[in-house]
Amino acid sequence: MGSLFRSEEMCKAQLFLQSEAAFSCVSELGELGLVQFRDLNPDVNAFRRKFVNEVRRCDEMERKLRYLEREILKSQIPIPEATDNPEAPAPREMIDLESNFEKLENESREVNSNQEALKRNFLELTELKHILRKTQHFFDEAELHHQQMHDADKDEESHTLLGEEGPRIGQAMRLGFVAGVIERGRLAAFEQMLWRVCRGNVFLRLAEIEEPLEDPSSGDEMLKNVFIIFFQGDQLKSRVKKICEGFRAMLYPCPESQSERREMALGVMTRIEDFKAVLVQTDEHRSRVLSSAARKLSLWFIKVRKLKAIYHTLNLFNLDVTQKCLIAECWCPVADLSQIQIALRRGTERSGSSVQSILNRVDTDEAPPTYNKTNKFTSVFQSIVDSYGVSTYREVNPAPYAIITFPFLFSVMFGDLGHGAIMAIFALWMILREKPLANTLGKNEMLAPIYGGRYIIFLMGLFSIYAGFIYNDLFSKSVNIFGSSWNVSGQGFSEADLESEGSFQLNPVNTTSKDYIYPFGIDPIWQVAINKLSFLNSFKMKISVIFGVTQMTFGVFLSFLNHSYFRSNLNIFCQFIPEMIFLLSIFGYLVFMIVAKWFFFDATSSGQAPSLIITLIDMVMLGGADPPLYGDGTLQSTIQTGLIAVAVICAPWMLFVKPFILKKQNDRKVAREGHLPNRNPAVADERSSIVVFDELQGESETDPPPKYNGKEDQAGPSHSGGGHEEEEFEFGEVFVHQAIHTIEFCLGCVSHTASYLRLWALSLAHAELSEVLWTMLLGIGLGADGPVLGTILIWATFAVWATLTIGILLFMEGLSAFLHTLRLHWVEFQSKFFRGEGYAFCPFSFKVILENRDD
Question: Is the dihedral of CA 334, 339, 345, 347 positive or negative?
Fold first, then answer.
């Protein structure tokens, strides 16, 4: 089989690379992406490996590139994506890259430092400008305040905020003051602290700076206030300055005379204009430097990450005793060995080495990794399977079957022409705009899963359209394409009755012709019937059982493909055959009764049809068949009794035969060899069971089983990455393991069949909810009196109906149906054949490393 149906055949190999050619060879293998290297130095600390210095240099280069990236994004300069995939640079090119990145980083830091210093000076001048503008008003108020204090101090008894002795303008003792700027958010605490520390002996005046100011360090906008504080005495002056310093308020010199302030303001404005010109030039120079770096940044990131990945990989290798050769071990697909050898030859030629690299396959008992080749269409289905468990090496891969069964079972629960069409159109839009959306939806944390699953969403939409035709359901309404098969006149209904409001009880006997049925899907006349729900419930419940038993039977058949591939005749005889008989004798017979009831009873004889549930209960209880489904009651009773007897025999067949055959084989080897090394019975040795069963059949081992690179394939390999540790055979553990499997299968057949009824339940819920939305919203406008009122009501309710339809029926109901379909595949289907005890093949691939660069 191809790799889609069964994982690729893998082999373990050793690589012998000359030291001067190792870098180029690993680079070529990284571009190829078909080799998974093993760590040959697991006990060596990461800081003591051979290429740790090179890795550190790559880390340092990556740090510098991230710094440049932050600066470029901060300046809102676009970073173009790399259009080509450059090769990993040679080791000698690292020096040039390092010097280039060092130069760019230093230049960027120097420009940033100069720009920050200029912005800080510009900020200080701007704040000083506002102080000089606001202080004239402050001094006018202070002069008025002083005059009032002078008049009130004539009796020398008043005490003011400015001191015990009221200051007089023009006298020797004058008021001192400081002026500055403070952030608006700190203003309240600043005022409170001034009042408490200075005990109210200061005079504070404030004015807002209307325009926001830019922080030189962070570039954030700040809102600030200008303040001026009047005080008297050196002690208060010292306190005020300390408080200003504590609240990070900037103090500026401010002349007392108006003429001096005007002269200083003119000088400040001149310097501000000069700083603006210098800032523009500095910003242009910074933009040129960063724009030049932005054009090559993506390519530089690719080169550095490839370099780093290569040296990380080289640290997994061993040096031989001569220090001239590197030895590596790896897993690789057998089918791609020729490509790997070509890549090694190309890498050797690039390095200029005269000694060719060597690749040798080695025999091993280790379980190989599981590698399933996928493309952008099949990868989503493979990821659904791998989310539950990675396939055991070379066992049947459920993914190709899920391509059909997954959207089909989803559509059974989500069957609606309108909803399926919306889903399919949305997915088709994502498929057609795949590349542009990769950088938007594909990188969004919430929407990336939807974008990644665009193909499965498209299939689910198409299958839902098909199921909608079967159910004849379009936004809870039917579509009359072929004309109804019902004779309404025979029912006593007139055409006027059907055109009016109301529902009717339909009698299946009265049809237009006994030979005519509705060609495809459900007859649209059921939409107006009172017994619509009971009819559809019966129909959907029965097809759910049919689909469930069919899929479980197919799952058991896939287990036969596994046993056959691994040449496990004992499992075929002791597991597949009794499991298939048990499943078909009870639940296969139930499906037969469902189909037979559709064929043996028509509308005229439906009243004599037996109940399927009661018939199945009577069958299990060994009761009679009254009324009979086919033949006479004796024939049906005999067949049902025989099927139950066969099913009962299958249980001990699955439980006892295999453990006792393994025990017999073990006893023979013990008698012959004195001991029997064996593996854990939970993953019982199929090799010994093959021998026993062949001996019982008189067969010879002329056709060897599949191999792991020269070793016989095991049905239950260890996946720890090491060799197999053989354990002694324990009959008790083997028996318990087989008992668990038997009980799980027998009870699982019952519970899993019942679990498939979720197809019916969710389909019913989806249809009823869709009908409720239509009736409560659009139905109001459609049933209104008069076209004008109806148009207004439809216009008013359509937006609500569309929003609820997309939000609830498409998104929430669709997600619910998806999760239930996922459960049916993981539990009910895959449990019949899928072990999922493997580990994924993770090749050294530059493509994967660059796609997952954040990890």
Answer: negative
* 23, two tokens: 């870098």
Instruction: Tell me the chain's radius of gyration from C-alpha atoms.
Output: 42
pLDDT at 132: 84
pLDDT tens-digit readout, 337-363: 999 999 999 999 998 888 888 999 999
CA–CA distance, 578 with 647 (Å, rounded to integer): 8
Three-class SS of residue 250? strand
User: Residue 855 and residue 845: Cα distance in Å, rounded?
Assistant: 14
H-helix or E-strand spanning residue 358: strand 358-362
Strands 318-319 and 10-18 turn out to be unpaired
Q: How far apart are CA 591 and CA 542, in angstroms?
A: 8
Q: Which residues pair with 333 in a beta bridge?
A: 10
Cα within 13 Å of Cα(131), Cβ side:
26
Angle between helices 187-197 and 234-246 (to 10 degrees): 150
For residue 175, pLDDT over 70 is answered with: yes
Nearest to 131 by CA among 69, 213, 189: 213
pLDDT value of position 818: 96
Q: Please determine, for residue 312, whether its predicted confidence score (pLDDT) is greater than 90.
A: yes
- Which pLDDT score, from 0 to 100, does residue 96 have? 92
Tokens of 819: 């999760």
Which range (30-39, 166-175, 258-267, 581-590) has the least confidence? 166-175
Using pLDDT thresholds of 50, 70 and 90, give the confidence band for residue 778. confident
pTM score, whole prediction: 0.79
3-state secondary structure of 490: coil
Task: Please report which residue ranges of 49-197 form alpha helices under DSSP H.
Answer: 52-74, 94-152, 187-197
> Which pLDDT score, from 0 to 100, does residue 690 have?
37
Nearby residues of 508 by Cβ (< 8 Å), 6 or more positions away:
603, 606
Domain ranges for the chain: 10-107+284-362, 112-277, 568-747
Give the closest residue to 767 by CA, choosing from 598, 536, 581: 536
Query: Looking at domain 112-277, does it have CATH number 3.40.50.1000?
Result: no
The reported pLDDT for the residue numbered 61 is 95
Say which residue the tokens 């080169």 belong to.
303
Q: Tell me whether the omega of the peptide bond preceding residue 86 falls within 30 degrees of 0, making it cis.
A: no
Q: For 711-735, what is the mean pLDDT? A: 56
Rounded CA separation 365/707 (Å): 10
Burial grade of 87 (CB within 10 A; 0-12, 13-18, 19 or more): middle
DSSP states along 676-689: -EE--GGG--HHHH
